[in-house]
Specification:
Two copies of one chain form a homodimer.
Chain A lengths: L1 H11 L2 H11 L1 H16 L13 H10 L3 E5 L3 H9 L4 E4 L3 H4 L11 H14 L4 E5 L9 H15 L3 E3 L7 H9 L3 E7 L5 H4 L9 H17 L3 E5 L3 H10 L4 E4 L7 E4 L1 H5 L21 H17 L15 H12 L4 H5 L8 H7 L4
Helix pairs in contact in A: 1-2, 2-3, 5-7, 7-8, 8-9, 9-11, 11-12
Amino acid sequence: MALSICSGLLQRYSLFESLSNLQRVVPAVSRLVVKGTQRRFKVVPKAPEPPRRVNLQDLRKWKVEGRKIVMITAYDYPSAVHADLAEIDVVLVGDSVAMVALGHDTTQKVTLTDMIHHCRAVVNGCKRPLIVGDLPFGSYEVSPEQAMSSAYRLIKEGSVDAVKLEGGKKITETVHRIVQGGIAVMGHVGLTPASVSAIGGFRSFGRNCKEAKDILEDAFALQEAGAFAVVLECVPQVVAKHITELLHIPTIGIGAGKYTSGQVLVYHDMCGMLQHPHHAKVTPKFCKKYAQVGEAIQEALENYRDEVRNGEFPSETYSPYHMPKEEYEQFLQEIQTSPFLVERNHKPQQVMSHLDVHLYGDPK
Amino acid sequence: MALSICSGLLQRYSLFESLSNLQRVVPAVSRLVVKGTQRRFKVIPKAPEPPRRVNLQDLRKWKVEGRKIVMITAYDYPSAVHADLAEIDVVLVGDSVAMVALGHDTTQKVTLTDMIHHCRAVVNGCKRPLIVGDLPFGSYEVSPEQAMSSAYRLIKEGSVDAVKLEGGKKIAETVHRIVQGGIAVMGHVGLTPASVSAIGGFRSFGRNCKEAKDILEDAFALQEAGAFAVVLECVPQVVAKHITELLHIPTIGIGAGKYTSGQVLVYHDMCGMLQHPHHAKVTPKFCKKYAQVGEAIQEALENYRDEVRNGEFPSETYSPYHMPKEEYEQFLQEIQTSPYLKPQQVMSHLDVHLYGK
């Protein structure tokens, strides 16, 4: 009855007036109704907000404050989740995927489509870090137009926040065009691994004055072209220090000493993946191993293999699915009378599929 | 002089005769020469032979002998290398890649091109195990012709040795056509995860007589169609036991008890990846965790982050590249005179655009 009064009142008056009327009419009940209404309208359930993603202004601010920027590479969903949980600032989906995840000898083999594939997996796992995708060898050097198209694909299809490309002065026009087109660009100078065939191998740069000056000029040109940060790879600590002081954009070092604005390492190297002694891929000498995951995995696989071979796995604990007794008995009955029983009476090698006959010949 | 005698003799006589002649002529020296010659001609350097790859005959033999077949999934080069080193028999590049490596909720999203990409990475790392590639959801159900085309792509472009596909009696014709076309096929019955939308979720099968009989008939149909093995997923141990006894092809179980001819597990689950407590993806209850890799990785990343933030990393040990003193002094001089000296007065147009002058 109170409800019909309510609805009647609501149809004529505003909610507030209705409630006031109701309060005058039925005090005790109305207090409950009003409280219920208040509770219902006061707390509007909101979808939980995702954490705010790191952006370029954060990076700029951190350089000014002197807070080191932490960057790591990731190539798939689990590594992305780990990086997000560890509150890493920037995640790079690097073209190093070619070497550590795909098994190639250089980073040159990976295509833009491959990079997009891995970027999407990483984006699925990372909510807070800034995600940067590498433009792979051959996808941006031909012309600024090719570079822009590749960058747009990486952003649109790969869902990353920014792109990175290798090169210094010679790539400034390209960087400028991509930035003008609306995409944030991170530069990469010093050792540029994708050019390994032109360089003739992996080595450090900037150990003499001329090279050091070239790297400085490269970094500066990228800053002028609009890059928001620049990676310095395998350069002497003192050179990286001066570059960091002279630039206003952050520098991220790898094998470049501790005076850069931040550091980056390859996920597999720092976790000690691929570090089982029998197959020790060479860890670069600037990379510290924070875990021995490769050895842990190796041991795990060998234990699994041994336990399967000797019948220990799966034990009862790991065989959780059971059949009720009566169902099982009925099952046994049915297979007794089924055409499959004929097979039981034959020795298995007498039942050969045509594939076997084709491959191994008829044993008879 | 001994050498010229040698060559002269070699031109006329066989090697043996030459050596005998030489021995008669110059005893002391000849002994050295002969020894040297013997050393040179006896050991012919050969290219090291790669290990022989596991094949279907091995699997058949192992079922007869009762030797358990060990199978693991792998999705990239490092996991493939680990599986190879651990002497695992069969490596499966599963469509489970969609869930564990790519972050999707089901295995339905992964495409044939994605599978080929991951197969190639695994093949790069595995020399000895048999490599099986999953045909993903939607790549083989439409028609036997579609299935054959997909299988050929996986073999040719993915470089795998065999393909696997889910389904029982309804897919027997397709399996038969692929096998006739020359490709080895592994079947998969019981829980077929790619059909999760039709099933309505992940659950075990075969816990009543009707389902158990269906699974048995499915497995048998696949054997008759020419499959070389069949995966049994999430079925009661007793059902898997009977199927294994009734079939002559090997059965590989996952959540199917220990009476199958072999076992398979998902790499990430058994290594304890994704197992950090804050983000514990659910490990299936039939999967034993043989390591806690997820926790190790988490700790490693947190240590790295802390050491970078407080300046501990990189220490001198990890900053190996140095500049000779004179080069450095010259460098300092040159940047004094360069236009780069006053950074804060130099704003790129991007900054002006974003933050104002």
